């Protein structure tokens, strides 16, 4: 399947109305004023990080530091931006879990606004590699957070996930614990911490739509884990526009935000629609039901039983507030740091569950 065919399928999906899309009358992406800020984006070459980078090009800022550990994706981002004005942009190949490297970054640039998008996000893969999930998603976040406070960053925006709500997977637990740590720091006088929690990015690397397209290209059946499984979806353009909006918020009642993603979509509906659309331009293909993979849930939520949603000034952004002044547990990071590569998934989960 060539790019033209792939693009055609994308447009057919949009036209089908399966996914909520902005009205044609919607105004272009808003330009925000960050002219006093040196902005750091971790995971800058990923789906969210790269889109944030591109949207920030329409904004004013003092300096933009784009950090990623993945060489080829970072190079691709550099090429994507090569015809833009990159005089105020630095691209850094850097591991945010390496204390010496990330400390040097803060000493050199003194970032004032941080978008932390770097994370391990694939649920089944993290079930098999829990040490890595803790190393990056929890300890890497803590390192960035602590340095943000030490070097007097003004705002820190953490990119979380709906899988952090009532988590059952290592990935979800690791993101929830990171959320809890930031919540415990929410009264810090120097740095304002905000959390953005949302569902799957439509078309992102590793998500279901590119997987289906790859299966179509190789003439293999589309695989759906369960007929009932559903997920929330949001476009990366909309998600990043709302993240930038949140970066301008002040004095909110909570520091956790989620987005209006409308109703969750059943994956079988997506597969059936894709097969029907593809049959218009090629042969019909099979859908095969497999089974839920390790760590996966049938359905995701955007709030837990201890949380409620509150409107904000933007109808697409909702505040997530705790009921009855619910407080997150204190985290023993020495125990998390003691997790080793040879520990089993169940051993690691028994530790993580203590801090949910």
Overview of the structural elements:
This protein is of the alpha/beta class. It has one domain: NAD(P)-binding Rossmann-like Domain (Rossmann fold), CATH 3.40.50. Helix content is 37%, strand content 19%. It contains twelve helices and 15 strands. Strands 3-2-1-4-5-6-11-15-14 form a nine-stranded mixed sheet, with helices on both faces. Strand 14 and strand 15 form a beta hairpin. Helix 7 runs parallel beside helix 12. The longest helix has 21 residues. About 2% of the residues have low confidence.
Describe the structure concisely for a colleague.
The chain has 356 residues and is of the alpha/beta class. It is built from twelve helices and 15 strands. The chain has one domain (35-201, 234-262, 301-355): Rossmann fold.
């Amino acid at each position: 399947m060539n790019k033209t065919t792939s693009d055609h399928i994308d447009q057919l999906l949009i036209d089908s109305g399966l996914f909520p899309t902005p009205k044609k009358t919607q105004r272009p992406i808003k330009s925000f004023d960050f002219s006093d800020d040196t902005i750091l984006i971790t995971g800058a070459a990923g789906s969210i990080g790269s889109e944030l980078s591109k949207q920030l090009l329409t904004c004013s800022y003092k300096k933009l530091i784009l950090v990623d550990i993945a060489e080829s994706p970072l190079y691709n981002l550099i090429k994507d931006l090569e015809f833009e004005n990159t005089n105020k942009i630095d691209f850094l190949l850097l591991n945010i879990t390496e204390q010496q490297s990330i400390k040097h970054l803060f000493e050199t640039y003194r970032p004032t606004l941080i978008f932390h998008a770097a994370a391990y996000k694939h649920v089944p893969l993290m079930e098999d590699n829990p040490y890595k999930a803790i190393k990056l998603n929890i300890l890497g976040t803590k390192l960035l957070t602590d340095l943000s406070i030490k070097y007097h960053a003004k705002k820190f925006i953490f990119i979380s996930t709906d899988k952090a709500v009532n988590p059952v997977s290592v990935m979800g637990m690791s993101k929830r614990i990171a959320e809890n740590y930031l919540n415990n720091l929410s009264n810090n006088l120097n740095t304002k911490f905000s959390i953005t929690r949302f569902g799957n990015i439509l078309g992102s690397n590793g998500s279901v739509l590119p997987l289906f397209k790859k299966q179509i290209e190789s003439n293999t059946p589309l695989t759906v884990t369960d007929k009932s499984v559903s997920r929330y979806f949001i476009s990366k353009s909309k998600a990043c526009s709302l993240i930038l909006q949140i970066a301008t918020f002040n004095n909110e009642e909570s520091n956790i935000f989620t987005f209006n993603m409308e109703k969750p979509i059943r994956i079988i509906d997506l597969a059936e629609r894709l097969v029907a659309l593809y049959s218009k331009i090629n042969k019909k293909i099979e859908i095969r039901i497999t089974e839920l993979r390790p760590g996966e849930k049938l359905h995701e939520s955007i709030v837990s039983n201890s949380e409620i949603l509150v409107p904000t000034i933007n109808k697409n952004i909702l505040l997530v507030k705790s009921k009855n002044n619910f407080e997150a547990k204190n985290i023993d990071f020495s125990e998390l740091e003691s997790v080793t590569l040879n520990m089993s998934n169940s051993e690691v989960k028994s530790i993580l569950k203590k801090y949910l």
